[in-house]
C-alpha cells in the first residue's frame, strides 16, 4: 500500500514537472512569434499598409450559451450536465453558477500557473483559465486565514492552478474546474488533493496543453 502511494506521488510529480517544461517551451515559442509579429507590423507601417483586423470577440455577442444543471456524485463533486458555451465575447456574462464552471468568456485568460490573487477576479477571464485545464480555488470571508494561507502555498507549487477571493459564493472554500465543482472543509481536507489530481489538466479540459502564462495578472 505504501509503495503504491509513493508510486502515485512520484507519477504526479513527474506529470507536473512535464507540464512545467511544456509551459516553458510554449513561452519561448510565443516570444519568438511575438518578435516575428512585431517585425511584420513595422514592415507594414513602412510601406503604408495599415490594416484593421476584426476580432472574433464582437461586442454584440450573446451571453453565455449555458444550459443545464449540476449532478452531485457520491464523491461530492458536482458535474455540470448540459451545455457550456465556449464563444469569446467582449462583455460581461451572466453565469448560472458562482464561481462559474464554464461558458462563453473573454479572449484574455487569467494567468494560472500557480497564481494567487488577493482581489476578486472577473469571471469572464477566470473561465478562460478553466478552459485551459486550470483548477480555480476560491474562498469567501468565512474561510479561516490559516486555511487560506495553506491553500495559497499549495497553489503556488502547482502549475495550472489559480486562487482568488469570491464573496459571492455560498461556501467558505470551493474548487472549480471546467464543468466540475466541489466544496471542501479546509486546506487539510483530503478532497483538495483528489480534486487537483483529477482535474488539473484533466480529461474535462477543452483545450489541453494551452498556456497558463501570457494572460492577465490583475
UniProtKB/TrEMBL annotation:
The chain crosses the membrane at residues 32-53. Residues 1-10 have a biased composition (Polar residues). Pfam families: DUF3105. It comes from the Bacteria. Residues 1-22 are annotated as: Disordered. Keywords: Membrane, Transmembrane, Transmembrane helix. InterPro entries: DUF3105. This is DUF3105 domain-containing protein. It comes from Streptomyces luteolifulvus.
